[in-house]
Input
Amino acid sequence: MNEPTIHVGTVGEGIWRSGDGGATWRRACDGMFVECDVRALVAHPHDAGTLFAGTNEGVYRSGDGGDNWTRLEGPLDGLITWSLLIVSHRPEVILAGTRPAGIFRSSDGGRNWRRADANMAQGCAGIIFNRVTTLRADPLDQDRLWAGVEVDGVWRSRDLGESWTKIGRGLSSADIHGLAIVPLADGRRRLAATTNNDFNLSHDDGATWEPQRVEERFDHAYCRGLAQRPGRPETLFLGNGDGPPGGTGAAWRSDDGGLAWKRLALPAIPNSTIWDFAFHPAAPERVYAYSVSGQVYHSPDGGDRWEKLPREFGEIRSLAWTP
Output
């Protein structure tokens, strides 16, 4: 298998790229402020050379694998972009989640944007401004999208992101960090949500939620990134730790849609919370995990074996890779 190209989005150091699987690195952020904050990175599902970056200055696009970046001018200028979603079956549709909390939608590959109808809370104590931390597509309904807001709960769209409605009760916290949608054998879906104090499940399309009391099974209750293996949506990966950023972390895998969990055998004790994971549908067995305080881990076999990449960064908030 060829070594992948990895892009790491940092806070204060822009984007770093490795073309040899993490052995060597160089900055790859020409066209944007070299010390910008990059909190979201996504690769185009059908074009390995096209990437999008969500930054503290708006959204940028690269058409040459990250060599050069161009800011997508419009209403996102000056807004901090926390999350991005390219709709895989309609990749010209792109969603961006911002701070203060809002969702912006493009239907032409990022050339033009408009604000979606989503009356999200704008602020709260502690973080001052709310932010849209995660955006997810629904595998059972091509027009349905999901969003998690820190701190304003779970939101749903039934029109491919044009308008949004807040849903659900019973969450352990309205501080949403990650979402997953698990198709079930009977045609229904199970929803999963990570928060600052637990992992939550819903069996009725998000109307009600059941906290799972992970503090009884995990070392820490703080849960962050939540990802699904391409082609196996019942296989979930969860990152957690002792806080944001915390001083230690762990990675977990569930093979049954979030009911049972196994701690993954990372080769070192993470230096902070495991923030998130990165997959690519072209090689679904390959997964990267990263801690918020700069460590990157790689598994070639779906999480059974891991290596720690030698380079450490200051603070990582996003990672995307391409074959």
Notes: The chain has a mean pLDDT of 96. Residues 168-313 form a domain with the Methylamine Dehydrogenase; Chain H fold (CATH 2.130.10.10). DSSP finds no helices and 30 strands in the chain.
